[in-house]
Amino acid sequence: KQEVTQIPAALSVPEGENLVLNCSFTDSAIYNLQWFRQDPGKGLTSLLLIQSSQREQTSGRLNASLDKSSGRSTLYIAASQPGDSATYLCAVSDDYKLSFGAGTTVTVRA
Amino acid sequence: GAGVSQSPSNKVTEKGKDVELRCDPISGHTALYWYRQSLGQGLEFLIYFQGNSAPDKSGLPSDRFSAERTGGSVSTLTIQRTQQEDSAVYLCASSLNGGNQPQHFGDGTRLSIL
Q: Which candidate, A6, A29, A47, B56, has a CA 20 to 30 Å from the CA of A23?
């Protein structure tokens, strides 16, 4: 069974600092890895999807890397803003089923 | 709107009652998924539809849970004889055709069993 771990569970940083969120998974036979953002009381917003054949994806201030062989992904958020405060979840896909980590709750202090 | 729509957004019911949760996927998306998010268990997969068929129901926790999808569009998740442990947020997602496509989520239905 795929196990997904996210470290740290919570993170508080001052505005402007770069964020580094880590995700690890136990079974490297994945189709893709997806990073989501979840605001309180809301659903999940897809941020980035990295195919298993890719090493990284970028969107604006967000960059995600994937090292499938070691079972790791990292989400970098540059120049954090208070609006980046949310819970960030990573999920790995075995074709269609997503297995989620417990998330990292980020607070960006103004 | 163009996103995944779920209703109701909140549901409070008494233990033992049946509930129906509805999901309207993004138009044209053939794949539809149900997940459950609870404090103790995190986000768990429940069921996957491709068109009107459900090739994977492995995440449904008991035979009190069932789901159907009609017209390759709307899906309903039904929980019979609800128990307190069924309290959770039920999330629906859709993707263009499964596989390597990103899943897009609705805002969920928050279910509370009294």
A: B56
Q: Hey, of B36, B97, B105, which one would you mutate to test binding to chain A, going by the most A CBs within 10 A of its CB?
A: B105
Q: Which residues of chain B have pLDDT under 70?
A: 1
Q: How far is A53 from chain B (nearest CA, A)?
A: 11
CB atoms inside a 10 Å sphere around CB A98? 26
Residue B31 near chain A (CB below 8 Å): yes
Q: Is B22 on the interface with A (CB under 8 A)?
A: no
Rounded to 5°, angle at Cα B24 from B39 and B84: 30
- pLDDT (0 to 100) of residue B1: 53
Q: Please name the helix (run of DSSP H) or strand (run of DSSP E) that holds residue A57, with its range, or none.
A: strand A56-59
Secondary element (H or E) of residue A93: strand A86-93
Task: Tell me the per-residue pLDDT of A2-26, one tens digit each, with 9 for 90 and over.
Answer: 999 999 999 999 999 999 999 999 9
